[in-house]
Amino acid sequence: MSKVYCSVVVSAPVEAVWDTVRDFNGLPSWHPMIADSAIEDGRSSDAVGCVRSFHLVEGGFIRERLLALDDLNHKSTSTILESPLSLANYLSEMRLRRVTADETTFAEWMGQFDVADTDEVDVCNTLMRLYSSGLHALAERAT
Asked: Is the pTM here over 0.90, yes or no?
């Protein structure tokens, strides 16, 4: 199993950051690599089990299912259903933690998945670029 992890400190309270990232359909509003997004079947974007379909700015198409949304612990979990990446059993978690010293937010985005050895470096680099650009954009948005 392969893993990718990225983190950043956001200069905003955890509640404000959570208001942005908890919307499963809200990626285009803060992530620079996401062109558009839609929740399928008319479901709510915070309904566990809903599926979002989105396009990357570079042209890829991805479908993901929301597996968990934890407002108390500021954590969301999802899985990829369809993607141009050669991976399987993908599980992603975004988690926010309050930094009590200065009321900022420690944001983490991690993923684990199965991938063929020959594709592992490319897939990990692609996901790291996706996670890193998203978290840095989230941090910039707060300033």
From this structure: yes
